[in-house]
Amino acid sequence: MSPSRVHNDLPRYDFPEDTEEILEYADLEALDISKLDQPGGKESLAAQVLQFINKNGHGFSEEEVKRQYALCRAVFDLPLGEKLKYACDTAKGDFRGYKPQSTGKLSVRDNDERYNIPKFTPEHERPHPQIILDHLDEIRDFSLKVHDQVLIPLLRLFAYVLEIEEKYFVDRHRYEAPGLEYLRYMKYFPRSVEEDAEVGNIWARGHTDYNTLTFLFHQPIAGLQVQTPEGRWKYVKSSSDAIIVNIADALEFLSGGYLKSTVHRVIRPPEDQANRPRLSLIYFARPEANTILKPVVSPLLQRLGFQRDVESFAHDVTAEEWARARIAKDHRFRTGLVDKPEKEIIAGVNQRFYD
Ligand SMILES: O=C(O)CCC(=O)C(=O)O
Ligand SMILES: [Fe+2]
Question: pTM for this one?
Answer without folding.
Answer: 0.88
